[in-house]
Amino acid sequence: MKKEIKILILEDNVTDADLIIRQVHKSGISFLPKIVETRKMFEESLDLFAPDIILSDYSMPAFDAATAFRMLKNKNLHIPFIIVSGTIGEENAVLLLKEGVTDFVSKNNLLTLSQKVIRGLKEAEESQEKKEILEKLKIQTAALLIANKELVFQNAEKEKRAIELINANKELLAFNFISSHDLQEPLRKIQTFISIIMENEMQGMTQAGKNNMERIHVSATRMRQLIEDLLAFSRVNSIEREYEMSDLRIIIEDVKTDLKDTIQEKKAVIAVVGPLLPVNVVVFQFRQLIYNLISNALKFSHPDLSPHITIETSIIEHHNLKLRNQNFQPQKCDYWNLTFKDNGIGFEAEFNELIFVMFQRLHHSHEYSGTGIGLAIVKKIVDNHNGIIHAEGILNEGTTFEVFIPVHQNSETVLQETVLIDLQYELANV
């Protein structure tokens, strides 16, 4: 997200415009607002102000939101458009949502405005990423021949088939990203319509109807989380990686800031032991790794104990490196070791490896939320750094994750392995 967001506010009531600005300020977003109230001012601002998002009243004396949104479409501008009004009415809101309006917020309840602004900006950013991926796919001319299940590599054909498989997997990962993104639009509409029904129609429903509506709401929310996790997995699986020396302390503090509310709610303690040396990593991936491991420890904390998470860091010389996985061939260099320990609910030893499998859950979804993708992302990030991760759980005592990655990364040795995912079972059970 940009450091400063440009927000165009189409509103003829100065008091209402001030309330909208104050509400968005509460989200912590840094933004530059511009208020307009006529068609001419709006059209000029689209070109000169170039907004990142538009917040519009539904009806004004000389202009209205529906006309403004159609002007946006005629100019082929894909800018998030949120209607903020107290007079729109349910029927008009549904019609505009069908036309492509991002969302709407009632002036009588502005509490959700900040959240919807953030979500609208995020979806616009992901849409732009999708366009860039599609452009790259058009440029690429690599042949897409997927090898047969029982493909046998022999002599000269082995190298040729391996290259074909790598290219096919790259395309499949791009397809996974695009498909997951496209699923968000209809799902967002479903969630919006469910919210409308739950706000306005629930009183007239039978108890069975209310229960069914609540189940639909929960399932749609879980599906949205699944899609977002799949998008995250697609980004992590990207073959192109750029390593840079990074300050681990800054990365950990950023993650703690993101999880501040959960940390405070659970009265968690996060302690770092050992030297916080610079690390040679893909920054956005490694930040995701630390976020997922800390978030996992907070989620699976012991119900009778405040979470205590210890992060230990150290450098291990090559000849002192001891790994449980005998199939992993370490590079002949020193390794950077990062260990996460918690006092949570732990797990049985038989799940030490299974815990990293995509969609693998050790608990029912009604006990702990989640999609079963978080630790699969962690393992893929470690793989991308030519490293290895171990997990060890002790039931009702806690969990330990140990990460080992080479101190020096060679971009030419980046693993080319990709994963083809069968989503049929998971999607069928959402």
Describe the structure.
The protein is of the alpha/beta class and 430 residues long. The chain folds into three domains: 5-114, Response regulator (Rossmann fold, 3-Layer(aba) Sandwich), CATH 3.40.50.2300; 140-236, Helix Hairpins (Orthogonal Bundle), CATH 1.10.287; 244-413, Histidine kinase-like ATPase, C-terminal domain (Heat Shock Protein 90, 2-Layer Sandwich). Helices cover 46% and strands 16% of the residues. It is built from twelve helices and twelve strands. The chain has helices spanning 14-25, 39-48, 65-74, 90-99, 113-139, 155-200, 207-236, 248-258, 260-266, 283-299, 374-384, 424-428, and strands spanning 5-10, 31-36, 53-56, 81-85, 103-106, 244-246, 269-273, 279-281, 308-316, 335-341, 388-394, 398-406. Strands 2-1-3-4-5 form a five-stranded parallel β-sheet, with helices on both faces. A five-stranded mixed β-sheet has the order 7-9-10-12-11, with helices on one face. A two-stranded antiparallel sheet has the order 6-8. β3, α3 (65-74) and β4 form a beta-alpha-beta unit. α10 (283-299) packs antiparallel against α11. The radius of gyration is 25 Å and the shape is globular.
- Rg (CA only): 25 Å
Strand arrangement across the biggest beta sheet: 2-1-3-4-5
Overall mean confidence score, pLDDT: 78
Helix content: 40-55%
> Terminal Cα separation, in Å?
30 Å
Summed up, the helix count is 12
Q: Report the structural category.
A: alpha/beta
CATH class of the largest domain: Alpha Beta
Characterize the main sheet: 5 strands, parallel
In CATH terms, the superfamily of the largest domain is: Histidine kinase-like ATPase, C-terminal domain
Total tally of structural domains: 3
